[in-house]
Amino acid sequence: MKIILLGPPGAGKGTQAKFISERYFIPHISTGDIFRKNISEKTSLGVEAKKYLDEGKLVPDEITISMMKNRLAVDDCKKGFLLDGFPRTVTQAKALDLFLSNTGGRIDVALLIDVPKDLILNRITGRRVCPSCGASYHIKFNPPKVEGKCDVCHNDIVQRKDDTEATVKSRLDVYDKQTEPLIDYYEAQDVLSTVNGTGEIDQVFQNIKDVLKDIHK
Predict the structure, then answer these.
(1) Are 186 and 110 in contact (CB under 8 A)?
(2) Known binder of ligand: residue 199?
(3) Residue 207 and residue 16: Cα distance in Å, rounded?
């Protein structure tokens, strides 16, 4: 089963990806993990990618595509995989289709976790973390017992720079411009399935299983 996971930042893709990977015994392949591995191992692609990242630039599609092709060629992907963060553009999607077609394969489902933007803003901007012990909270959904203080080590909790409203809106704008066209792309291929991502985590996963049951036979 070959799955692509789509959805805006804060939709819960990482959490659901873990559940899917464990239930269906397929590797969860994250773009971020691939980048970190190549950079830490100082592969030729990793060295090139790091140059762009160090300058605050986007890594060109051809580098990202090459990294993903190398990963998908590993034996653990023979029975399927779950892609998270790739493809991010239609150019990457077309390259993935070509790569899979050369081995007689294709994407089975592009799974879109749909969450309204106002809810995403509430989810992300309400997050707080403890810089001392790493504990995480949410001012509405999972507040600390004492406002502003970590339950574990009692130090001040903070909002990460990536979680401010301005940053989140900027990330959502990037998503709209680059990634939303993928929805049309996979809908045209009749492999797009949309899941309501606004419920509890377990309910969202049940919705995903309902979609995948007709594919995983």
Answers:
(1) yes
(2) yes
(3) 11
Residues noted as catalytic: 13, 88, 127, 160, 171
Is 13 a known ligand-binding residue? yes
Per domain, the residue ranges of the chain are 2-115+168-212
- Whether residue 67 contacts residue 49, with contact meaning beta carbons closer than 8 Å, is answered with yes
User: What is the biggest distance separating any 2 CA atoms in the chain, rounded to whole angstroms?
Assistant: 57
Tens of pLDDT, residue by residue over 76-129, are 998 899 999 999 889 999 999 999 998 888 999 999 999 999 999 998 999 999
* Cβ atoms 65, 92 nearer than 8 A: yes
Calculate the CA 33 to chain-centre distance: 11
77 in a known ligand binding site? no
Q: Is 204 annotated as a binding residue?
A: no
Q: Please state, in angstroms and as integers, the Cα–Cα distance from residue 24 to each residue in 1, 19, 52, following that order.
A: 8, 9, 35
- CA–CA distance, 210 with 216 (Å, rounded to integer): 10
Please state, in angstroms and rounded to a whole number, the distance separating the CA atoms of residues 104 and 68: 17
Residue 171: pLDDT over 90: no
Q: What is the mean pLDDT of the chain?
A: 92
CA-CA-CA-CA torsion sign (112, 114, 118, 121): negative
Beta bridge partners of 193: 111
Residue 106 assigned as binding residue:
no
| CATH class assigned to 2-115+168-212 | alpha beta
